[in-house]
Every structure is written in C-alpha cells, then in structure tokens.
Amino acid sequence: MYGSWSRGDADADSDLDVMVLNFAGVETAHSGRVNVTQLGLSEVKQLSGTLFGYHLVRDGRVLYDIGGQLAAALEFVRAPGEGQVIGRVRSLTSVLDISSQDRERYIEGLTKVARYLLRSALYAEALDQGDPCFSVREIAARKRDPQLVAILSSHVTVRPSASEEVLDDLKRRLEAVIGPLQPNPHGDLHGLIERTWRTNRDLSNFATLALSEGTDELPYDELPRVTL
C-alpha cells in the first residue's frame, strides 16, 4: 500500500493505492476509490531512480509478502539523482506544444498530461531540495498556494474542468518549476507520436496518452513505460 493511506494523511476524497506483485495474473485496475497496480519483480527493480520507485520505498507499507520477495526487490530501488526527474519532465513537455486544432480536440487529455507533469515536477523539486514529499496538500502548504490542492486533484469532482484556460495555467505553473518547456518541431500530436516512435519511445508513448478522451484520469497502467 502506498499513497495517502500509507502515510496516514488520507481524507474522504483519498484513493486507496495498492501495488501487487504479478504472480497470479492480477491486472491493473481502478474501481471506485481503489487503484490496484500490478508489477513483476523485475519491473519493481527497474523502478530504481524514479519518483514512483522512491515513493514506494519511502511511503509504502508492505501488507503481505510471501518469502520476503517484495522487500528484496525494493532493496534495489534508489532515489533519483538531483535534477534527474526534472530533466525527464522537461523532456516530455513538447507534448504540450501543439496546434490550436489539437488543443481544442484533445483538451481533456492535454490537461491530464499537464497535471501529471506538474505534480511530478513539484515532487521532484521537493526531493532535490532535500525534503521529499508525495502529498499534494503538503506541497500546497509549503508553496503557500492552497489552489494547488484542487488543481492537482485526481478527482473530477474536485479539480477544475479541462479548458484552455486551465491548460495554460498548468503550463505556466510547470514552467515556473522546471524552466522553459520544450518545443514540438512536428507541429501536432500525431506528428510528434509518429516521428519520435523510433528515436524516443518514451516521448511517443507519453504523447499518445494526451490523445485520451472521456476518462477521469490518465491510464496509469500505461505509465510504467514512461515512469518518472
């Protein structure tokens, strides 16, 4: 178990986040306020140097572990180096530099992607400053910016609805943390996806997530391919 319930700061809007070792065909799933992510042992070890991996080690609680296999895999996971995650976030921001037609058509997916990048950047900033934090409420308190709680919420009833104004606000906040966003030399999302497929698979996969429409949140079962 990881996230707010493992930290002890959950409230009525908090999801229960659980990671399960994939020995029995358990599938990543979301039901109500419960999120279940499945990973193999090798995938857990490969989380070393990522925010998500460090989050599991720092805030997670092992509830059931046959033979200590999960604990042993987590021993391989180390915190990201200083600036490492910020650099990765910055490298993905060209997804947000798209045509006006794409902004209108994919505003839902683009807003979700921007929210994910901003949340990750703020967590990475706290880590680089020597005071790690994976709580949006705590980050908002440190920044003295209570609006962040709603802006970064994973719940559709709490966060502002996707719009060009919301997207622009997320981009401005992201730029304040990581510096200038990266340009997209291909003009639109489909061009970015197609022309980076062979040369930068992470960017291509991440741009594909921005095409998502009609869902409350990003398909996190796909994010391990671009885990920050």
Mean pLDDT score: 87
Radius of gyration: 17 Å
What's the overall geometry? globular
Total domain units: 2
Low-confidence stretches: 220-225
As laid out across the biggest beta sheet, the strand order is 1-3-2
Order of helices and strands, N to C? HEEEHHHHHHHHHHH
Q: Count up the helices.
A: 12
Major sheet size, sense and barrel closure: 3 strands, mixed
Protein name: Nucleotidyltransferase domain-containing protein
InterPro entries: NT_sf
What are the SSEs and their pairings?
Elements: H1 4-7, E1 16-21, E2 29-31, E3 34-39, H2 41-45, H3 51-59, H4 69-74, H5 84-92, H6 100-105, H7 107-128, H8 136-143, H9 147-151, H10 164-178, H11 189-196, H12 201-209
Parallel strand pairs: 1-3
Antiparallel strand pairs: 2-3
Organism: Ornithinimicrobium ciconiae
Protein name: Nucleotidyltransferase domain-containing protein
InterPro entries: NT_sf
How would you describe this structure in keywords?
228 residues; mainly alpha; 3-stranded mixed beta sheet; 12 helices; 46% helix; Nucleotidyltransferase domain-containing protein
